[in-house]
Amino acid sequence: MAETFAVKLEERCYYPDPRCKAAAWTPDYTRAYSEFLHDPDGFWDQVARELDWFEPWDRVKEWNYPYAKWFVNGRLNIAYNCLDRHVTGGRRDKPAIIWHAESGEQQVLTYEALHHEVMRFANGLSSLGVGKGERVCIYMPLVPEQIVAMLACARLGAVHSVVFGGFGADALAMRINDADAKVLVTADVGYRRGKTIPLREIVNDALTRTPCVEKTVVLRREIPAADLDPAREVDYAELVARAAPDCPAVSMDSEDPLFILYTSGSTGAPKGIVHTCGGYMVGTYYTARHDFDIKETDVLWCTADPGWITGHSYIVYGPLAVGTTVVIAEGTPDYPDPGAYWQLVQDLGVTIFYTAPTAIRMFMRYGAEWPAKYDLSSLRVLGSVGEPLNPEAFEWYYHAIGGGRCPIVDTWWQTETGMHMITTMIGEPMRPGFAGKPIPGAVVDVVDRRGNPVPPGTGGFLVIKEPWPSMLRTVHGNDERYRTYWNTIPGCYTAGDLAVKDEEGYIMVLGRADDLIVVAGHNIGTAEVESALVSHEAVAEAAVIGKPDALKGNVIKAFVTLRVGATPGDGLVDELTRHVKKSLGPVAVPAEIEFMDRLPKTRSGKIMRRVLKARELGMDPGDISTLEE
Ligand code: WT7
Questions:
Q1: Ligand 1 atom closest to residue 310's alpha carbon, by position in its atom list
Q2: Residues 210 and 300 in one domain
Q3: In this predicted model, what pLDDT tens digit does every residue of 349-388 receive, in sequence order?
Q4: Which ligand 1 atom lies nearest to the CA of residue 415?
Q5: C-alpha 144 to ligand 1 mean position (Å)
Q6: For residue 285, is it within any domain?
Q7: Shortest-distance Cα residue to atom 24 of ligand 1
Q8: Where are the annotated coiled coils located (predicted)?
Q9: Which of 251, 253, 256, 249 is nearest to 275 (CA)?
Q10: What is the CATH number of the domain that holds 573?
Q11: SS3 helix, strand, coil % of the chain, rounded to 5?
């Protein structure tokens, strides 16, 4: 690990409309945070009481470093909280899920309808021998049945492992085997950019090396039932049709596992992150409600796939535990044209929109004229997650999408944290480039390698200093890997990110610690140089790597994609070089700039610098099962 280093901080600041602050669930962040610090267990105890439990907990937490238990001996069912609680509590006819297909087809499931679907499918799964504690792999396109399958597992106490439908056969087989899944739930096809993705072929390939799978449930969208192989395949529709309608929710211990989810693996081989029932429910419920400020009439669209943690926590469990209406869309942001998302925001009256910087930069590349064609006045809150939101992208999002009206919550968190840990709570002043401050409920800091806090303006390691309810409990089959998170820096959970704080405690995330480049003895974060490049009007996206250099140790090489209308060439290379020099100084200037049509990314949209680096140095790129096609 590198030493700490100095960072030049952005000073722009946006002041939100005081009305949104007054009306927010957390109207006074500073006060809420100090109340939490004063009595952390009391804080979470109160949140947990807003949900339904079959048995109350004895203690809020038990901390036996590095192992935590939350809501000890409490009993609950998260699917019960996402469904039954609303059906009996006045939300029976409220839309829970609005699904939009690429073809334009739409389906609305009310809380009552979703409840019924989930109970029938849960009964179907149990007829296949799935019970509490057993693992079910879900490999589906973005259809309501994907969410139904997750909630059905939760209802039965089975542990789901959702694998994003864009992964290939090797990635799928590895995850099935690692989790030792007994049943696989899938579909024959998915649709993307007008093309058909043959999921069943991929599954059949993976199944040649997954002896643990006994049955595969197939949601048929194209093939006739007669095509299924009765020895190993089960028709989704038939399974549901013959299942009994009622299925009681199994009473789970707080600490029973809820799901395993493999991390996107932008750094090496995937790890099966394990989350448990009670703490995960409380953490995602609280952050969904407070960070997005969800009110009864809101319509939330989180553009992730339920196959990522973002989808688990902020499409499925958090928002449904709150009882909100969730939009899901199968397809891509720029198909059939770059206005597709904005059309949907307009037509469905989306009020809370949550997406990733990679998508925002893509929209920037197409230009503000696309969103300008639509009425986006329903939007009230904008969110970002997954990578640092470059100041330039922040500005664009704020003006071109939010009309200068909507607060932006840039949420920092991880598969491992299960819930948001840092953001700028609604109503607080926003600083482009900074995710914000720790949310009430989280104790986050920037420290040196011995765990001592570093002063403002000095970069260091982003750590979490106290356990939180929705923290990972282990890495499936590799508890030692779990302990590494807590053993690297004494007393802290090490997130693996570099960050810097300003005088007021705002945190800027600089990127993964392994993305740091040491040039002539100076530490340079890839994210800083990338943000400087992206702030140039010709640049859409940038990825920066370090290249070994005899003289300087490393030099910076930048890979750049351009906005529509910009022309690559030596002239632009010179201009970009001058541009970075002006904003970051000579030490951060790329020695080489290469123009590309697209950058290698993980399927969740993170730039894979490792792949660029391997290509540049003629090395083996390592595990690339998460690379986008
Ligand atoms: C890593 C976790 C958690 C949702 C999706 C990704 C990066 C995440 C931000 C943000 C800067 C961010 C970090 C983190 N990251 N959100 N708002 N600003 N960086 O989950 O695949 O587990 O990745 O994503 O590097 O460690 P994940």
A1: 4
A2: no
A3: 999 999 999 899 899 989 999 999 999 999 999 999 998 8
A4: 22
A5: 26
A6: yes
A7: 386
A8: none
A9: 256
A10: 3.30.300.30
A11: 30, 25, 40
